[in-house]
Amino acid sequence: LNQGGLDFLISALRTELLDADFSEIIAGIAPIKLLDFDIWFIKIFELEARVTELSFDDINMALNVQDDEKIDTFLDLDNFRLGLEMSGHIGIFPYDSTIDAHIEDVKLHTDILMDIVNADLDLAMSQTSVTNSFVNLDLSNTPAFLDKITSLLASGIVALMKPLFIDILEAFIMPTASKFIEDIPIKLHLVTL
Hints:
Oligomer: single chain
Structural class: alpha+beta
Helix content: 25-40%
Shape: elongated
């Protein structure tokens, strides 16, 4: 697979992601702890968030073949939005709220490794990283004192993003790339050193 083939694949992947229904991925994401604070074994705060919505306006991609035959993969998502339901308790009081997180720019980088295993194409990821611009949070039904700890909430949301994007890669990009590559007639050559 050469660079020309990868450039063609970008178009298919971009279409797949822009038209994707992320509901299965969202349903499979475990809640993330945003706050967990005790004093002398008594829970004072306990808040967790569950993803309810995921969307973005546009995606830019680059796939580049490296010298070691890995595919250097970059995704740049514009106007990324994440909807969250927050629940838990503050002292003895139950608490429920929603958070809309908006991130103007999210960048994902990973290396895709291709291998043949039992005559099937096998794709794996390594060195995956996610970077993002400032996280803007819109909290509803939130006590004033929680508004003051939005940086902690934002940190929790950012911590959620790497596993979320790995799930997206595995659910959409890997199968699309795999199907595309499997349709290409590949001649294998055994090289001994």
